């Protein structure tokens, strides 16, 4: 693997795009597969944090509407960042446990949970059909993918509902 390909793979992970230069994932060490999913998870978390910080810096009207919706102000950015980290981690763990419950191998469940929550595309296998072998796994995987499409702020407000 060239240095440029390594940079491309890393940037793809941190930006949660899931583009890869690998043709055959089966030839990759499992540690590297786990690293790919981890950097994608970090990239998804970074995206959420950057939204909060960019809104806080640049757009007062959007900041007012979003901060009223989330009920926090600029002085509480650290507190809200911790809440988002805990929520993001909790959703990831929940997805992992649900995938394990449906008899998906733990290694694949861990990688898929980090990929699902970050809305990325890194898979621990060449194709998803080698991981999802029955209809119940396909259905639950499809439903869990919807979690990443919902705004984490929406899920936050469902959990910490305030009038």
Describe this structure in words.
It is a single chain. By secondary structure, the chain is mainly α. It has helices at 3-14, 30-58, 60-70, 77-101, 106-117, 135-149, 152-159. Helix 2 runs antiparallel to helix 4 (77-101). The protein starts with a helix and ends with a helix. 22% of the residues are buried. The mean pLDDT is 80.
Strand content: under 5%
Q: What is the average of the pLDDT values?
A: 80
What structural class do helix, strand and pairing data support?
mainly alpha
Report the uncertain regions: none
Quaternary structure state of the chains depicted: single chain
Total count of helical runs of at least 4 residues: 7
Helix content: 55-70%
Largest beta-sheet details:
none
Number of domains: 1
Strand and helix layout:
Blueprint: H1 3-14, H2 30-58, H3 60-70, H4 77-101, H5 106-117, H6 135-149, H7 152-159
Helix pairs in contact: 1-2, 2-4, 2-5, 4-5
Give short descriptive properties of this protein.
single chain, 0% strand, 163 residues, mainly alpha
Compact summary:
The protein has 163 residues and is mainly alpha-helical.
């Amino acid at each position: 693997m060239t240095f440029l390909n390594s940079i491309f793979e890393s940037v793809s992970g941190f930006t949660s795009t899931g583009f890869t230069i690998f043709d055959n994932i089966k030839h990759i060490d499992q540690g590297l597969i786990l690293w790919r999913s981890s950097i994608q998870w970090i990239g998804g978390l970074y995206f959420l944090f950057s939204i909060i910080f960019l809104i806080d810096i640049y757009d007062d009207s959007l900041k007012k509407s979003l901060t009223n919706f989330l009920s926090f102000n600029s002085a509480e950015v650290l507190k809200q960042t911790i809440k988002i980290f805990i929520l993001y981690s909790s959703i990831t763990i929940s997805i992992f446990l649900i995938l394990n419950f449906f008899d998906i191998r733990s290694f694949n469940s861990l990688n898929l949970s980090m990929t699902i929550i970050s809305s990325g595309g890194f898979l621990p296998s060449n194709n998803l059909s080698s991981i999802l072998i029955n209809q119940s796994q396909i259905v639950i995987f499809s439903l869990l993918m919807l979690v990443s499409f919902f705004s984490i702020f929406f899920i936050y407000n469902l959990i910490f509902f305030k009038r």
